[in-house]
Amino acid sequence: MLLAVGAVVLASCGEAGPLDGVGNRTREIVKGPTTTTSPIVAVAAGSEDEALIAARDVLWFNDDIDPQFTGQPDDVISDVWRRQLRSRFVQSARREIAAALPTLSFPSLLPEQVQWVTSQLVYNPTTGTLDPDTSAAFGLWMAEPYNSDLDRLAVLRVGRAPTDALAARSPFAVTNLPDGVSLEWTDAGHRYELYCRSEVSEELCTAVAQSMVPLGALLP
Predict the structure, then answer these.
(1) pTM for the structure as a whole
(2) Where in the chain does DSSP place strands (E)?
């Protein structure tokens, strides 16, 4: 299972928790200047003053990676692994993840506090292939990523669905944690876990999960 329940999982980015590895920065990657392409427009959702914004309108941390690949999933997976630097979580462009996992979906709407998205392919370091339990991970950040874990508002982790899972989307399994909420479901061969910190209501977190679209539809 993607989720480990207990207070300790929320206290760090260690191996046990919902934030496992998602906050690890590959500092050797040189980032260029990044700019938004359109104004951020919030739409009402959730409770009280909560709102959602379009995933297209936030900054994607790894979109300046210029991948060179043929577009075949196995080629992309191998190419990304070759640039890994001491971590099974490898910073990856949204285009790379969409090519490696063509049926993977991502929320089209995000909490309005989110300004940045980080994206990673996640590997079994022994084989250099994607980890079936967590194959891709996304961090939703309120400020420029990796300066402070306090800025990470939510995490989406995607793994392989059990072989007996229905092809159609399953209902959400909701787990209330001491410092947030976790939603789990399966869809089109993938298992998803969306963890939202307590600053985000369960209602709004559910609205984010309900807005899933193919990641390829969100490419710039």
Answers:
(1) 0.82
(2) 42-44, 51-54, 59-60, 89-91, 105-107, 109-111, 116-124, 129-130, 136-141, 152-160, 173-177, 180-187, 190-197, 212-214
